[in-house]
Specification:
With 151 residues, the chain is α+β, with helices and mostly antiparallel strands. It has helices spanning 4-23, 29-43, 48-74; strands at residues 90-98, 103-108, 111-117, 128-135, 138-143. It contains three helices and five strands. A hairpin with a 4-residue loop joins β1 and β2 (103-108). The longest helix has 27 residues, at 48-74. The model has no long low-confidence stretch (mean pLDDT 86).
Length: 151
């Protein structure tokens, strides 16, 4: 290898491959292949601008087209919990919910959860709320609308 850019691309390929092996997160393997393609361009006599374009193009194309498949088959399995079963359920505010004060608790069924208002409003103790989502270990809730007259 008399071409110094070939050595640069080889070193980069090794660095990206080692980084991938160390993280196992499917984060840098695409760039290792891009480096390999750029090294091939270098060995074929392309100038450094062409090599850089080849590196970026191959890395981007591989990232765009193969990452979703790789994530599907090799990305770690997500551990599902039963926590999402409370979404849509009603709860009773047992501690005033105030996002600015980072306070609030809701009882849903027999469980007490830390809660935050989904729209940022303050919700008083004793109010009935509806669970809209879960963010980390906090329920995102909205005050239940009062039923219409005659319901």
């Amino acid at each position: 290898m008399n071409n110094p850019m070939s050595v640069v691309w080889l070193v980069l390929m090794i660095v990206f491959a080692v980084a991938e092996a160390a993280t196992l997160g499917l984060t840098s393997i695409w760039f290792a292949f891009g480096s390999l393609a750029a090294m091939a361009a270098s060995l074929l006599g392309a100038n450094w601008v062409v090599q850089l374009v080849v590196f970026l193009a191959v890395s981007a194309v591989l990232l765009y087209f193969t990452r979703p498949l790789a994530q599907k088959y090799f990305g770690g399995a997500k551990t599902r919990t039963n926590a999402d079963r409370v979404v849509g359920m009603h709860g009773l505010v047992i501690q005033r919910i105030d996002n600015e004060q980072a306070s609030g608790q809701v009882r849903v069924g027999s469980q007490v959860w830390t809660a935050r208002s989904a729209d940022g409003s303050v919700i008083g103790e004793g109010e009935t709320v509806v669970v809209r989502s879960i963010s980390g270990v906090k329920l995102m809730v909205e005050k239940q609308a009062a039923p219409a007259v005659g319901e």
